[in-house]
Amino acid sequence: MYINIEERHGGLSQSTDYHFIIEENKLVHISRYAVSSEKRPRAVKYTLDLNKVKGSTVVKISVTNSGIICSAFVFPAEELALNWQERHEEVKPLLIINEFKLTYLKPHEITFLQDEWKRYYVPMINELKEFFKASDVYVGTTILIKCQVESGVNYPLSYLIPYSEVARRKSLEGLTKEIHQIWVVSRILKYLTKLGVLRSEDLLTFKQSPYYALASFHHGGRAYSIWYEFDMNPPSMCEGMLWCEEPSEAIKKFYERTREILRKRRLKRLPLRPDIAIIEGGSSCNELKKGFRVKAIIECKNQDYNYWAKDIDYQIIPYKEIFKPDVMVLASLKKIPNYVKKHLNRYGIIVVDGVFPGGNGEKELVEVITKSL
Asked: How high is the pLDDT of residue 154?
């Protein structure tokens, strides 16, 4: 009996199901069993001989347009011919993936898993899990980050994309960047909590282009706010709400100044969304309209220097010139060459590398930020 199964190729952000067959301690994607396949726009239709998988077990990973579903669906392979309502699918915790090897991973992906993922990101995820549990408030993140932190899966969830090494790499770059950014913020929030200055919030929401600051605190008689993915890009800033209005004089002056920097540096576009910003006052976009003073900007880098070297002239130095923070810090997970540190120091940019759990830069970063307040 031959059946057709179509899987969309939208990574972990577009609705689809990925199907795997259990072979002892391995998960094998159904493409291995296909007698033929037909490429479609951003999808592939596989034709399977159901007799070849008879007696096997299927593990289905489901994705919606909102993100990955943080469970695995297990059922007999014979039921692939049935629709999902007729199948006897057993819902399992996604961490059952830990019991298997993913057969489609390339050697360099396995090396990353055994080296960098285990050394850097697993400790970050474990600390974030404790941070989320210790918080007396709701912590909001993307579905992907929430699942990665709470599921207990040892793999990067990006590795569950079976059809393309390129798609896995792009997803992994975004996933690891976000893990590093949120972990850096959590270190700062944890320290401010110890100082007893962090204001109680109803929730901590890590999202792009927010309307409200991530958190607020008082220190030295002044009010401050911490912004995650602080966005001054029209029209996305403040969830697009602020730009629907007539910009205030303070915002107009900000853009006049940034346009001068655009011409001066001959940039094609302005970098206007630093990873983390600490602002005097400014706990909401309504307050930002009146004008704002940036106390500190933290730009996080988790890749090798050679990977993002071009960002120095097109992102990092312009951030310093555009936002004019009292302190600007480049927080790098990996080692940065000394000549690069000296170059950035000329622009008043502090470089802290080794910013990962147990790294030399973890404590140094927090000290630099708190001294700036």
From this structure: 95
Residue 233 has pLDDT above 90, yes or no: no
DSSP state of 107: H
Question: Which residue is associated with the tokens 């001054």?
Answer: 232
pLDDT digits (tens, 9 = 90+) for 260-313: 888 888 887 788 999 999 999 888 888 888 889 999 999 999 999 999 999 999
Tell which phi-psi region holds residue 253, choosing left (phi > 0), alpha (psi between -120 and 50) or beta. alpha
Supply the DSSP string of 311-353, one letter for each residue.
HIIIIIHHHHHHH--SEEEEEESS---HHHHHHHHTTTEEEEE
H helix runs in 196-293, sequence order: 249-265, 285-288
Type of residue numbered 369: I
Burial level of 279, CB count in 10 A (0-12/13-18/19+)?
buried
Closest listed residue to residue 330, CA positions, set 141, 216, 184, 123:
184
**Is residue 197's pLDDT more than 80?**
no
Task: Return d(Cα 145, Cα 179) in angstroms, integer.
Answer: 7
- Nearest residue to 65 via CA among 15, 129, 30, 2: 15
**What does the domain layout of the chain look like in residue ranges?**
2-102, 121-371
Q: Where are the alpha helices (DSSP H) in 196-279?
A: 249-265
Contact 77, 55 (CB under 8 A): yes
For residue 190, the one-letter residue type is K
Alpha helices (H) along 154-308 = 165-195, 249-265, 285-288, 305-308
pLDDT tens, position by position, 120-142: 999 999 999 988 887 655 577 88
